[in-house]
What does this fold into?
Amino acid sequence: MKKLVYTSIQGADENTAFSPVVQSNRQTEDDVRNSGLDWVIGRNGIYIEPDIEYIETYQKVGGISNCAGDGKCGYTTRPELAYGYAKMLTEDKHNTQTYNLHGEAITQYQLAEHLNNTFGTDLTYTSMTVEEYRQQRVAELGEFIGTIVAGIYQGIREGKVNNPSHFYQAADREHESWQAYFDSIKPSAGKR
It folds into this structure.
C-alpha cells in the first residue's frame, strides 16, 4: 500500500452531540497525514438519499421538521462521491489535499421545495428547537442514535456543514446541480 484515501465528514467539531464523531474523524485525518504514505482526505457532505428514501414518512406527517432552522447544508450524493473518490484515488495531483465534497448548500426549505417539485407533494418545513428535535428523535430511534441525529441537524443550524466545496478540484468537474439530480429521480408517468 502506498496511498491512503480517507473518507471523512463535515460537521461541528464541538458543542453538539455529533461533535465526538467529528473529533474522531479529525484524529484519524491526523493519523493519515502522519502515516508516511501518500494521502488524500475527503470530507463528505451530508448524503441527500436518506431524505429521498424518507419521502413517504414526510408525506404521512405532512412535512419536514428538524432543528436545522435556516442553516444551509452541503448535501451530496453517493454517485457524486464515488466519482470524486475515484479521481482522488487514481490521480497523484490530489496527494496531500483535504477536500470538502458536496454540492451547492441548501436550506431545509429548499429541500422541501425540491421534494415537492419532484414527487408532487405539498411538504412544508417546520423548524424546531434542538431540544425538541432531540426528544422527538430519541423517542423514535433511542437515546444514542436520536441524540446523534439531533447533533447533526444542530451542526446544520450552526453553519458547520455550509463550507466551501472543493468538489471541482477533486473531480475536475462541478458537482451535479440539485435541479439535475431531482430531475433524474423524478417518477415518470408509467414508472410507478
Residues 3-176 form a domain with the Rossmann fold fold (CATH 3.40.50.720). The mean pLDDT is 95.
